[in-house]
User: Fold Isoprenyl synthetase from Prevotella intermedia.
Amino acid sequence: MYTSKELLEIVNHYLDSLAYDRKPASLYEPIKYVLDLGGKRIRPILMLLSYNLYKDNPKDILSSACALETYHNYTLLHDDLMDEAPLRRGQQTVHKKWNDNQAVLSGDSMLVLAYERLAKCDAKHLEAVLHLFTETALQIGEGQQYDMEFEMRNDVTVEEYIEMIRLKTSVLLACATKMGAILADASKEDAENLYKFGEQIGLAFQLQDDYLDVYGDAKVFGKKIGGDITSNKKTYMLITAFNQANAEQRAELEKWINKNDFDTEEKIAAVTRLYNEIGVDKLAKEKMDFYYEQGKKFLDAVKLPNERKEALATYAAEMMKRQR
Assistant:
């Protein structure tokens, strides 16, 4: 059995070894740049760990696992462009380092490369793998559309938000765990339980991202703290604050949200103080813990000895302790 740290080294080595020798080089330079920025490589690691539950050599599906990492980074590249984000993992985003058009075109090419890398899986599983991946990609687009539409609304509910992050974020983690199971010839029941495991862990993971945007350490987090606050992004934190606030607190929140001319640091400090008063930090942690515990139940239901599942369970626990 491989540990997540061993798999991280394997994934990074594989990604580093990929050649981008097609022309024009200017199309592929941003792709290599994005993948060289590093990251946690959560999706390929989840896929390899899930495969390793049943098969002893996860390197056999390394190309397909790294296809998910390629696709994930494609979505980040386009997300950064839509959000006008200046930094990703502490470095300039592609549209800042190059330009908007380059971000679109190189991102589109990353999507095609993801399919190319995915298709190197065992032919007997290709149809199931492509169906799962394509459905997941469509769901992620749907989630991103909801996310954009929510920015124009002031009545987004927690339930709507959870469904949006399920589509935008957690289904790719679920895809990773299920795809690993499919490629390892797992039973349909196990594959579905692993999908649900990934989905629930993914919800907890995104809620943690919302939390860290307010309470994280900028040097560790890799993004500017309070970015969601300054952009009035409809996160679990903001939606819950509105739901739980008294009249005075709600008025204060609305003042900052409707203010066009403001000092960034002052706004972040004021809204964070309101979150603390309302208890949003505690509620967010409770919600994270809920989905994490739900995920563990689905992993428990996978019909394998606990020692086979230990590496995957440990990795999920480590994900919940992250600071970035």
